[in-house]
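We examine the record.

___
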Amino acid sequence: MSKTNESLMQRRMAAVPRGVGQIHPIFADHAKNATVTDVEGREFIDFAGGIAVLNTGHLHPKIVAAVEAQLRKLTHTCFQVLAYEPYVELCEKINAKVPGDFAKKTLLVTTGSEAVENAVKIARAATGRAGVIAFTGAYHGRTMMTLGLTGKVVPYSAGMGLMPGGVFRAQFPCELHGVSVDDSIASIERIFKNDAEPRDIAAIIIEPVQGEGGFYVAPKDFMKRLRALCDQHGILLIADEVQTGAGRTGTFFAMEQMGVVPDLTTFAKSIAGGFPLAGVCGKAEIMDSIAPGGLGGTYAGSPLGCAAALAVMDVFEEEKLLQRCQDVAERLTSRLRAIQAKYPVIGDVRGLGAMIAVELFEGGDSHKPNAPAVAQVVAKAREKGLILLSCGTYGNVLRILVPLTSPDEQLEKGLAILEECFAEL
């Protein structure tokens, strides 16, 4: 009996807990670049990229070759037991790429949540303080500490009780929804007056472009004022670049475009082209705040992940993917704005580089998020062979995270499908 998506979904429902969501009722069999083929042999254009993991596409030949070569050498020793050069070489390269004209050090781990957890641990050790300020709409992970930082209860922490304390929520600046830079800074000052003194705050953590929150870009002026506020009070600034990093925004790290430098940077997702790898990079003296044994993990910085990440960096250089990112961004944005002009349900098209969002409203009213329309577009697009993702606090945002290596004709085909979906709403 041949496998079908339906039969596999039945097995999945019986074997996997319902808390593990699934956006599309599809089982992938194989993939190449920006094309995924399911178990029934149907091809889909991938505008999701495994949630921003595949900037270099599925199975880039150079990444595959690098991992195959490493696979023949060793797959695991635990870096804390027996070290291996790819870990050190990758840290050296990350140190050189993360913004900041100062000595840096990098810790490698396995997931984005783990990177954020460790950034908070390092900030607490470096400052002797415990509090953290995060923002409305933030997404920082699904582990307990990161759920405390994540600014969305349903579905991430619903039914789990209160998350760890010592986390305070400021407003993320968003002009579209009436939150000015002044409003956001004032919300931090209110925390200092009402909830916690600055001397109790170890770090402020922010995504330069919010991911799950809706792809809202932090204004440069806000970042400068945030940096000044942190400097004034001895608070560390953590840039969560898990989704924005590895070239998605047109620079290898989005903070390169923000005019200020963070103390700590987290990264994951596309850094290793589909292999589990993440990390924290920061000022050397801050990173050295924790004694030997306080950082690490059994699989942290696996040899295969390191080999993949080093290949990703080579591919970015050799194929000029940062420039390609700008070209993709221009193509997507211009076409999406042309679609917006035809369909009033589209209230905003925005992003940084090729991290692009389309926000839908009822009747063009920014106070009326249109989540049902987004759900319809995602479903219609899937029927036509295009994989999309939604996001946003109210689920009314389409996000596009197509591999930067996708050929122009495939981008155009995906955009044409998207336009058809809006025509059918």
Q: What stands out?
A: The first strand starts at residue 28 and ends at 32. Residues 33 and 60 are 7 Å apart (CA to CA). The mean pLDDT is 97.
